[in-house]
Amino acid sequence: MKGNTLSRKRSAVAARLAAVLCALAVGVAATPAASALVTTALAAAPVGSATALSATGVLEVDPLASLAGGTGFRQTSAAEVALPLPTTPVLTAGALNAEVDAGRARSSAVDVRTRLELVGLPFDLSAELVEARCDDGAGGVTLAGARIAGHEVALRPAPGTGVAVPGVASVVLNDQRRNGDGSLTVTAVVVEAANLQRIEIASATCARGAAEEQTPTPSATPTPSDAPATTTTRVAGPSASSGGPAKAPRPTPVAGHLAVTG
Q: Where does the signal sequence lie (predicted)?
């Protein structure tokens, strides 16, 4: 009887020990998995990017003045471009610039002009400055001296402003798209021409930065040593102890003879 009881106790202890070992094994096995999840999350974190100019279609232009990934402030630029050939340029631009930083991205192109009539599309776009900016998950664009198909364009168009040239092309100004990772992509000008050409001018992508919690610091209570020093200047006047006029000093007699006349 005692042997059966001892056997049952040993079995119970062994079962509990096995459960503990299994829990430890699961914990050890889960550690690399958790680490992998953290690594994946970090890898999937939205990163800022900026591209001054790109095109696909009849005219292929790899991203120019383009930045993506990395950390910290970075900047790049490209000199004047004339594509596809300087002699017959379909797309020209002056200086191209791009810069990215934590929670911020910006790109721009100056003296931009398209001449799609050279590829059979009667459409023209020109601008002195095309700029896209994205700061902390919000963005906007600037179009200085811009004209599309001979019509002037607002300096700061509202998001998703469309300009259509029937049968030829469609243009979206200040195109803003929220990405799956929560970041925002702002493209100043998107040109779609007869399903044959797509041109993107000045694009910037950024994520909303983490809000910094700031705990207000209570103002220090001034101590007597902190109080401003007060300087008191005494002016001759009534005696503070008597409350009345101060007594005149007693005259000292001087011996002598005074001449008497009369």
A: 1-25
47: left (phi over 0), alpha (psi -120 to 50) or beta: beta
In a domain, 3, yes or no: no
Q: Residue 103: inside a domain, yes or no?
A: yes
If asked whether residues 31 and 140 sit together in one domain, one would say no
For the stretch 35-69, pLDDT in tens is 333 333 334 445 689 999 999 988 899 999 999 97
**pLDDT of 155 above 60:** yes
The region, left, alpha or beta by phi > 0 then psi within -120 to 50, assigned to residue 120 is: left
Provide, for the chain, the percentages of residues in helix, strand and coil under a 3-state DSSP scheme, each rounded to the nearest 5: 20, 40, 40
Q: Which residue in 96, 51, 42, 65 sits closest to 206, CA to CA?
A: 51
- Does residue 179 carry a pLDDT above 80? yes
The answer to whether residues 33 and 142 belong to one domain is: no
The residue among 135, 165, 162, 140 whose CA lies nearest residue 150 is 165
172 residue type, one letter: V
The single-letter DSSP state of residue 200 is E
Question: Which pLDDT score, from 0 to 100, does residue 239 have?
Answer: 43
Which domain covers residue 67, as residue numbers? Answer: 49-206
**Using alpha carbons only, what angle is made at residue 212 by residues 207 and 213, rounded to the nearest 5 degrees?**
145
What type of residue is 196?
L
Would the pLDDT of 138 be above 80?
Answer: yes
Contact 128, 144 (CB under 8 A): yes
Total of domains in the chain: 2
136 inside domain:
yes
Residue type, 206: C
